[in-house]
């Protein structure tokens, strides 16, 4: 479990605190993404997108929920964007194949 002090430091931009959060939650992020989008070649890219999203969103985290819930929301949003992109690419591909 990450202490409130580490979270506060990460929110303030402390790279070491951010790294601690990313390392602690990396396996959780991978597992959640695999559940949301399934295993595949895009999983590593999505994982990276979530980690970047965590760092960018940390200043907005107010502690009203668990940090893992906050990170889970970022995973869900990245997975949704990925699925939308896949659907969009499929429609474009179909258009050109006709």
Can you characterise this structure?
The protein is 79% helix and 0% strand. The chain has helices spanning 4-11, 15-37, 43-57, 67-97. The chain is elongated, with a radius of gyration of 16 Å. The chain starts with a helix and ends with a helix. The model has no long low-confidence stretch (mean pLDDT 89).
The major pleated sheet works out as: none
Classify the helix fraction into a percent range. over 70%
Strands, total number: 0
Task: Spell the H/E element sequence.
Answer: HHHH
On the 0 to 100 scale, the average pLDDT is 89
β content, as a range?
under 5%
Q: Which stretches are poorly predicted, pLDDT < 50 over at least 5 residues?
A: none
Query: What separation lies between the terminal Cα atoms?
Result: 54 Å
Shape label = elongated
Rg for CA atoms: 16 Å
Structural class: mainly alpha
Number of separate helices: 4
Task: List the main descriptive attributes of the protein structure presented here.
98 residues, mainly alpha, 0% strand, elongated
Brief synopsis:
The protein has 4 helices and no strands. It has helices at residues 4-11, 15-37, 43-57, 67-97.
Task: Give the helix/strand layout.
Elements: H1 4-11, H2 15-37, H3 43-57, H4 67-97
Helix pairs in contact: 1-2, 2-3, 2-4, 3-4
């Amino acid at each position: 479990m990450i202490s409130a002090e580490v979270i506060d430091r990460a929110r303030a931009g402390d790279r070491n605190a951010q790294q601690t959060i990313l390392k602690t939650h990396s396996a959780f992020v991978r597992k959640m993404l695999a559940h949301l989008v399934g295993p595949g070649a895009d999983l590593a890219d999505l994982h990276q997108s979530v980690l970047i999203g965590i760092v960018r969103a940390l200043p907005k985290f107010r502690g009203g929920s668990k940090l893992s819930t906050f990170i889970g929301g970022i995973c869900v949003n990245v997975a949704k964007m990925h699925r939308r992109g896949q659907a969009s690419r499929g429609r474009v591909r179909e258009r050109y194949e006709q």
